[in-house]
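Give me the 3D structure for GNAT family N-acetyltransferase.
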Amino acid sequence: MEFQRAKEADFEGKWIPQPAQEKDLAELAAMIFDSELGRKYYPTEKTLLEKMQAACQNSDRIMVVREKEKICGMLWFQMKGAFGMYPYLHLIFIPDSMKGNGVGRELMRYLEYYALNGEGQKIKSRIFLTAGSWNEGTIEFYDRLGYTTIGVIPSLFRKNVEERLLMKVCNRVL
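Predicted structure for GNAT family N-acetyltransferase (174 residues):
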């Protein structure tokens, strides 16, 4: 039984994350690339799609939430992405039309729950992520969720783009 199905009762409500399907990836790549975030970090939509497809072949997880058939948000993470042992949030994306509806908060709650309870993994009490310093709204979102900036890394992904390294210590009670 897939993890999110087994724990579905813990994610009652409108936004229940589901694994992205292969057919979702092209739509997600188009949505992301059509945003400032996508254009800043990925040279082409095709490059982004190829990275997402490769990630799905590895141990990365790409989760989506839907309203009817419409994708309302996605979460892309690796369980051992930070320092080879801690969950790392690669990307969270919420279309502008869906921001403020609780989608992002629910996806982050899923990530935190999964880090503490997922599929026989050792409990990972810390979650790491990076956010471009230019993306103030996103950094404020992470601050509200309890993530703390622990460092700044210049030109990590793109020349002249400063990234903040953020971390949260999660507890069993979410």
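Confidence is low (pLDDT under 50) at residues 1-9. Let me know if you want a second pass.
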